[in-house]
Amino acid sequence: MSFDAEFRNQQFKSVGSRPLRPDGIDKVTGRARYGADFNMPGQLVGRVLRSPHAHARIVRIDTSRAEAVKGVKAVVTAADLPDLTNGDAELLHILDNCMARTKALYDGHAVAAVAAIDAKAAREALKLIEIEYEVLPHVVDVDAAAQSDAPLIDETLFTGGVEPKPAKPSNVANRSEFGHGDVDAGFAQADVIVERSFRTEQAHQGYIEPHACVASCNPDGTADMWVCTQGHFVYRQICADLLGLEVSKLRVTSSEIGGGFGGKTHVWAEPVALALSRKAGRPVKLVMSRDEVFRASGPTSATSIDVKIGARKDGTITAAVAHLRYTNGPYPGMWAELGAMTSFACYDLENVKTVGYEVLVNRPKVAAYRAPSAPMAAFAVESAIDELAGKIGMDPVAFRIRNAAKEGTKSSYGPVYGPIGIGPTLEAAQSHPHMSAPLGPNQGRGMACGFWFNFGGQTCTDLNVNADGTVTLAVGTVDVGGSRASLSLIAAEELGIAYDDVKAVVADTATLGYNDMTDGSRGTFSSSMATISAARNAIDVMRHRAALTWDIPVEDVVWEDGHAKARGENYGNLAPLSVKDIAAESGKTGGPIAGHSELVADGAGVSFATHICDVEVDPETGATRIIRYTVIQDAGKAVHPSYVEGQYQGGAAQGIGWALNEEYIYGEDGRLQNPGFLDYRIPVCSDLPMIDTQILEIPNPNHPYGVRGVGETSIVPPLAAIGNAISNAVGVRMSHIPMSPPRIRAALDGGAGS
Amino acid sequence: MASVSVSTTLNTDEVEFLCQADETLLDVLRNRLGLMGAKEGCGTGDCGACSVIMDGRVVCSCLVLGAEAQGKTIETIEGMAQGSELHPLQKKFIEHAALQCGVCTPGFLMAAKALLDANPSPTEEEIRFWLAGNLCRCTGYDKIVRAVADAAAEMRGEAS
Amino acid sequence: MRYERPETIGDATALLASAKGRAFVLAGGTDLLVRMKSDAFEADMVVDIKAVAGMSDISETADGFEIGAAVPCAALGEHAGLVAAWPGVVEAANLIGSTQIQGRCTMSGNLCNASPAADSVPALVAAGARVRIAGPDGTRIVPVEDVPQAPGKTTLKKGEFIAAILLPKPAQRSGDAYLRFTPRTEMDIAVVGVGVQLALDAKGVVETARVALGAVGPKVVLAEQAADTIIGTALDDAALEALAEACSAASNPIDDKRGTAAFRKHVAGVLARRAAKIAYERAGGK
Ligand SMILES: Cc1cc2nc3c(=O)[nH]c(=O)nc-3n(C[C@H](O)[C@H](O)[C@H](O)COP(=O)(O)OP(=O)(O)OC[C@H]3O[C@@H](n4cnc5c(N)ncnc54)[C@H](O)[C@@H]3O)c2cc1C
Ligand code: FES
Ligand code: FES
Questions:
Q1: I need a surface site. Which of A45, A266, A313, A357 has the fewest CB within 10 A?
Q2: What is the ipTM of this complex?
């Protein structure tokens, strides 16, 4: 059925209100079931053995002693996960990451796994697996890895995206370029040019729930999996492909998910759990330890970025260039490319060029982390912009307003913008009381902007009207932060019924059509579109039922305020029928009432934010405290404002942690030194102030209610906003994230942003 | 390995269980007693997701041996509501949207309950420092702190 | 592994002395259980000392305070007499971990874990605290600084354990303070820690002083030369500067995941200056 997604301005009844979330009570009483909270009868304990080496050839694996341990039911290695990828390089990399095939490529890379009747037997068996490694030279630093004499991670890899094809293999997997105009001509017109290099260290999403699954390969050839994931349909596809199962035979149920932020969009140990179960003939529960989460699952890239921006004295940027090198872990991705696309997306530039380099290193495979790749690029660009404004003698907000992208701007990565929120967020910042509040000694203020694309994608939704008139909404996008509440509001709005009459559930892969991941901030955007579409389809059915009941042509039945109404003078005495009325009679009028929707949600509106931050720096120790923080972001339409605020605050807090203290620290031996929450320092409650939010609503023209994604952009500006604030407080430009106390002290001593 | 026999008071019930000498209280709760409300976010005392109250003090159940529960009184999230009547903290957490993914929530509620039991009128700073052992990666803590302050006000009988 | 919960000191030492393989004392468990998580950890027995008579008491004696080895750090902050007498020691102990950790962790465990970054140790050393060690051959009393030997290693012999920490009665016009540096406000391990204790004469001149540094060497450093820089002064700026320099000089740290050596040396001086000022004020100096 065709679906009209165009935005229509309307007075909302449900959307925009703040009802209690449907899963709230389960979550405050401990009843909600997450990845590790599920058991199957007869289940075994799965454990993974991981390489202690950053780079090593696997010469020999002997599992016989482990297999002999009492209670051990299966031991698997790469040999138990044969390559069925059929030349699909990307899939082969996923497989290799799940279980190293010929080389261990990072500290923590899986090399074998066991399933045993209890944790003790599993632990003993792990110790008895004998592996002979040939340790190879390794490289973890992004710039070192890009050098031509660096140890090669993949000897068969030649840099893509360059002409002519290089003759020598390299750790630089790909080069990508974006932009338009003539940057050399642009710099020639500039009165002032800022050129600077920046570095950011690798950060982890830091979700509190470790990866966990229970997998069961059954004797009849079917398989079941319970797993915490941001996309059970995608997990099903990948696991089925890797294990040679038919997609329909693998049923995946997504548990409640204890945070993901992109890290649960990639499979990690799930195929291994299935392989163990297949070999043991029993269900296997596999839960990662925190140490494994840090060493072997999804951090973001470490980067090294060079930026050059020129402007005229009047404040017009004449040219901008960025070269961005991003670590990918041991397999090629498109992380630098995303960085290159987002770098200058906030600005209206005549001459702009960005070049991204994907760099392989002996670190865990990079995974998406909330607006992946954008925060680092924004740190470099927004720091340089700030410095440039200072050199010209312009207020940093006014300078940005002068150069901000607007409707009709050709973005630095290609597309021409529709209505967008960068200008409005900047203007809101300019007039925000935070911007003019007085500052004390050793304090500094900074601001910065951020951009994220937002994605739509494939979505499928079922809406069932029950006989009592309540509605069950089955969606296939995992609820990572209150989307069941938001989608219930949308269904209530469209149908004209009470929020409490809608119950949203996340359906498993056997009961609903395919859905993409909950990533790219798409959860509410795309599922709301599908929900509206499904509701409209259900309304059509209900109009037909009303027509049948009244015995009038369906064209004469309209839907208003949650009721079927007969239109026309002849029908004056027909009382409108509510959803409840129609549902009560459904058995007699044609059976159950439902609306379905399958669509590709296009046109997820791009989103922009501006953050303002005050810091206080202790110049003697380099310690930084965030004393005030304000997030201003365009939501398109805030469906459930509390959860929109929550996304803004959560993203800002993650950005603050990254800016100040979070980083992967590797030793000389290439081993991760801080794989735990004590030394990988995410912000604790006493580290943060309240985080003020201001929601702007510039409707997305491609969504019926104007919704844009809201989940990701909030992590983009903080690195730069805090960098600018610290630079203002201490008088030295900071160019290395995280701006930890030793780095600030060193910058103060050396006068350089170390 | 010899099993240890333990009797303890759990959410006002007398409970007996057998466990291994090196098994944590968290594992006992989750794997032997079927109480899955306490979560394992780290297993090493760093995240607070496994918080329970033992003899009046909030502790990480991942850093307590099951055997140590002998003769103790233990409160878990499952015992916080009185039947279907939620504790004010539980209500305020939902009302203030103080949870997103919710995996940290049981731990926060346990810690916050211990705080309000000890200090009915905590300042924002006291709330923040008391809860510093509970990590939340989703919310930025803002709404959690507000929920706790508001629950405290309600429990003191002040209108919110 | 066996779990034992003796009720007397004699039973505890007997168990520890007779253990065949590796035996561990269990106090709050906030270090021990973390180590037990590691696949490499092996133990044959843990001896939980929390049921041993007297281990959970804080008593005020003629000589000062006796703190049982199993007293959780949270209880120290709830003891008004102890807080009044030794605020620096209590603050240091209360900095350990989180609320949850506080409910379990002990100063004895902090000491016997023998981490160079242990928070309560520099404060105890500055305070001149001693420990009573119980063993198969009876008890002995030694200064706190003699317990740790190297990271993870103590001077305790097989069968011995710490039964109590003994704090003297504070001298007249004396005060103590402990400050540490951590990147986060809480839940962090000290990058540097400094404990200072000093006593003044009637005119406000420092008569005696003890300065102890944490996380700047393999074990706690009793910085006697640094203490000398402030003895005989009214803690004027020059004295504070000299103290800071001496503390930096006494530091011999390493670069590691928690901080660089240069940073640690510098911050040791900064914190010493700040801690000395607090101790001075607490001693009644102006
Ligand atoms: C999340 C977290 C945060 C932490 N933060 C800090 C911090 O900020 N500062 C800090 O200093 N430490 C910190 N620690 C470490 C730990 O909490 C402290 O060292 C604590 O004081 C240890 O005390 P315990 O009673 O728990 O020791 P236990 O774990 O019971 O014992 C520690 C060691 O000492 C031995 N031992 C214990 N008692 C005795 C005794 N009476 N006689 C002989 N040997 C004994 C044990 O066998 C063991 O080897 C932290 C730990 C965690 C998990
Ligand atoms: S699981 Fe116990 S503190 Fe993290
Ligand atoms: S709500 Fe997700 S960790 Fe707190």
A1: A313
A2: 0.97
